[in-house]
Fold these 4 entries.
Entry 1:
Amino acid sequence: MQNELIEREAAAAAPTVPMNRIGRIAVVSGTALAMTLGLVAVAEAAPTTTTKAQLTTVFTPKKQTYVTPKAKQKAGILHAQVKLKGSYPKYYPMPWSWQVTNKKLKAIATSTMNCKATGLNGKYHDNHASIPVGYKWHSTVGSKAHPHKQKKVYNLSGTCVFSVEVGGQPGQATVGFSFQYSINAGTKSAASSAAPVTTTKVVLDN
């Protein structure tokens, strides 16, 4: 009952935001986010996050490239590739890129992005600061020092943060992705493919 009361009070206290101006991208105020401690505002702020277990994309010689399916490109597009034919490094480097493509997000952006990625169980990091919203952020995970191992499941995650303005009110947008994958160079079967989990959150200042 106490949680229900907090949720109702927070919903009543939250300022009205012109949701139709940015479509399906959720907007919440900093006040509402703090008041509910994640009970209401976080659920509204990250509508694309799934509670289901994330599926794994498997790279094989028959499927060496991954691109986010068109139906899943609500926030952006992830590209990833692992060369598994001919001559290739046995540490299995995976060049990848992430691009924010949502037109409504780009329309409310008022600054460049600061992006960070992690992978290989914390052994891989990439930071790109002050890049334009919509820029194709790219890097490579997997090296001689920190190689991929066959059939092991990995997670590559990235987050981009930038300033926004909605209806004259400033705020901050966070767009992220989480991509679960493995590499199987020895199989002759086709690869399995799954879309990355993406999150989009816009929090307006008080």
Note: The first helix runs from residue 2 to 13.
Entry 2:
Amino acid sequence: MSSTAVDTSALASADAAALRARVQRASLADTQAGAPQPDRELVEILIEDDDGAVTAMNADELSPGVRELIEWVESAPDRTEQLGPPGP
């Protein structure tokens, strides 16, 4: 399992605004979690804010907005990355 995190308080204001805009375009609140399927990559997105949101979906069913958010986070300045064992 790998995870990538970005803390908006560590970003320049323009980068923080860009992240917030991508989160909004991804419409995570409207995304329904996909059922786990064998041999499929599962993507979990956690947005920590006043509302909080956790979305899990099959990687092959990602909307363009979600893909854009993931790509931005994976290349964001000041991101943190962790590798861990697979599983819950």
Note: The chain has a mean pLDDT of 79.
Entry 3:
Amino acid sequence: MLLSKLFFGLCAWAILISGFCSILISMKKGIKHVKKLHQVPCSGCAYFTNDYRLKCTVNPIMACTEDAIGCPDFESNQMVTDTLRGLTISHTLSMHQNQTSGFFPSRDNSKNCVNKKPQRR
């Protein structure tokens, strides 16, 4: 009787310890997997559509998977934004240069005020 209680007690403790160890191992594997998935650069790519039907216009099969970690077609949204901003700034500057170089009519109002009366003191 005492031997059976000791045996069942040891079995209960062995089951608890093995269950606890399997939970810890599963958590470590899960954390490792999540860290790897956080390295997927798709959400910051210029070709990412954020649509579940077509996630990427260049590589739709490997989009948002672990295969996309080293994607050779990755182009940052920030790079595209900066490029577009640079084009806008250069376009604005060229327009300003055209206005000041005589391409567009001058906006100088002093020439338009010919019949202006002199001011009295």
Note: DSSP finds two helices and no strands in the chain.
Entry 4:
Amino acid sequence: MSQHNFLNKLIKVFLLVSMIGSLGFLMISGITTAISHLTTFQIAKTEPYKTEFIDEISVPAKKYGMEFQMFPSIIIAQAILESDWGRSQLSRESNNLFGIKASEDDQHVVLPTQEFQDGKMQTEEAAFKIYDSLDDSILDHSYFLTGQTYQAAIAAKDYQAAAKAIQNGGYATDPDYSDKLISIIKEYKLDVYDTTHSP
């Protein structure tokens, strides 16, 4: 066999192997994408209330997030965590998504709540604000975060830093509060709502 023919065959073999490798990669990528879409579909099918809740509050979260310079993903994640996806008694009956406490003159409801004290979870009663709508609750929460204690959250460059600043500002007694917010944002890809945010 001449050297020229040998080189031609070698090139053909190389091209064939490359094509097979590319096809294999595309097949694997396609299968991975299909599995990802199937998983998303299954979650939406088995827990539609989560999708519905995010859809319901994402618009006001983006609106007030822009107005008050807060990450919409943080607003949504806090609403999810504080209201158990809008299923808590406080959110269902009083439109209070964030566990905002009432002042003396506020219309309020008294309910049991769990707080960390000395490293232990304890149940106590507290007065919570009553709102006319979920929109009002999100507006009041966004305004609440403009307080001096949460200035670091407004100045934060990303939602992770904002979550930590909110915890450091004393929003919740749970020592894992910021980690829970970050986990929710990552799991449900809530950062997609932060595209219009500019700290």
Note: The first strand starts at residue 108 and ends at 117.
